[in-house]
Hints:
Layout (H helix, E strand, L loop, with lengths): L1 H39 L3 H11 L12 E10 L2 E10 L2 E10 L2 E10 L5 E8 L1 H15 L14 E6 L7 H11 L3 H8 L4 H14 L5 H10 L5 E7 L1 E6 H8 L1 H4 L3
Parallel strand pairs: 6-7
Antiparallel strand pairs: 1-2, 2-3, 3-4, 4-5, 7-8
Amino acid sequence: MKRVSGTIIRLLPAICIFLFLAITITQNGYAQETLLKSLEKKSLQGLKAYIKDENKVKNCDAGECKAFIRFDREILRGYREVWGDYVDFDRGYELRLIAKGNALIYWRLDTVNEKWESRTKDSFIDRKEYNRFLQEYRSFYGVSLNEKELFISPQFALGGCGEGGYLPDMYEAMDSLVSTKNIPVLVQWLRSVNIETQLYAIEAYSKLALSLSADEKKIISYILSKDAMVHSCDGCDTSDRSVRKIANLKGYVQLLGL
Length: 258
């Protein structure tokens, strides 16, 4: 009996480690499973309800939330791009979604390691609806959608950013296009799926006081009415602002004679 007890005592640290890992892996697997089950229902509102339930006892302001949506914004009438993060124990996930109304027509769940390298864990695409989305995009903008411009948020500068008043790379690129009057590239920017790129194109159009075609007026009027938040900066104020608020601050409607 003493020999058995001694053996157990010697093995106790290893047993504790094994039990800890087993519980962690089980809980982590359960978290992945419940997240995937929520995604598989293909409902945007259902996913938001799941995220809200995950965070209901957390202090989000203190960074304790397990899951959160960073951006949920209109990219075309009836369509939204949504992306965010999910953290469980030390494992991170990135969510990328496209919704038509409430229905998820595309989603991708990536795992992210400590080096910020991502790998797709699971994904879904409703090919018929996604192709319809691409067709509607081309019909409205007259160009094909560049999928590399989905799920990104370059900073839009309302003025100089930070204490030093630096300008983001994209602002400087826009300024260069204005200086060289590179209209073809600005035309491409205006038709980008990325809202910050579109706003930089509108800023350039206003600086150049370009005469707008009927098609450009239609596109710009729609962009400025989008239900979307924009990653922006103005001095030390770095925050997400609505497209409508930025349009009002910059006076685009008056400047462009819309």
